[in-house]
Design brief:
There is one protein chain. It is built from four helices and three strands. It has 88 residues and is α+β, with helices and mostly antiparallel strands. The protein has a single domain, classed as GIY-YIG endonuclease.
Length: 88
C-alpha cells in the first residue's frame, strides 16, 4: 500500500505540521474538520491548514522513517533544503 508523508502549514500562524497517511485527501480534510478529534496538534493550533509539500512512499515503514528524518531536521529547514534542491 502506498503512503504519503506530508507537510501542512497554518494559513493563520504559519506553523508547520508533518505527518504520514495512506489517504492524503482524507487526512487533509480531517485536519481542517472542526468536528474530527483525531488531529490533536492541528486542533490546538489555528488553521485552516494547507498542504505545502508531500512525497509518496512505497510502504508505511518508509513513510515513518521519512517523517522522523523531517522532524529531526526541523520542518522549516527541511523545506528550505527541498526548495534549494528544486531550484538548483
Amino acid at each position: 500500500m502506498t503512503y504519503w508523508v506530508y507537510i501542512l502549514q497554518s494559513e493563520k500562524t504559519g506553523r508547520f505540521y508533518c505527518g504520514q497517511t495512506n489517504s492524503l485527501k482524507l487526512r487533509l480534510k480531517e485536519h481542517n474538520d472542526p468536528d474530527y478529534h483525531g488531529t490533536k496538534t492541528t486542533k490546538r493550533f489555528k488553521g485552516p491548514w494547507k498542504l505545502v509539500w508531500s512525497e509518496e512512499c512505497a510502504d508505511r515503514s518508509k513513510a515513518r522513517a521519512l517523517e522522523r528524518r523531517i522532524k529531526k531536521r526541523g520542518i522549516g529547514r527541511f523545506l528550505d533544503d527541498v526548495s534549494i534542491k528544486m531550484s538548483g
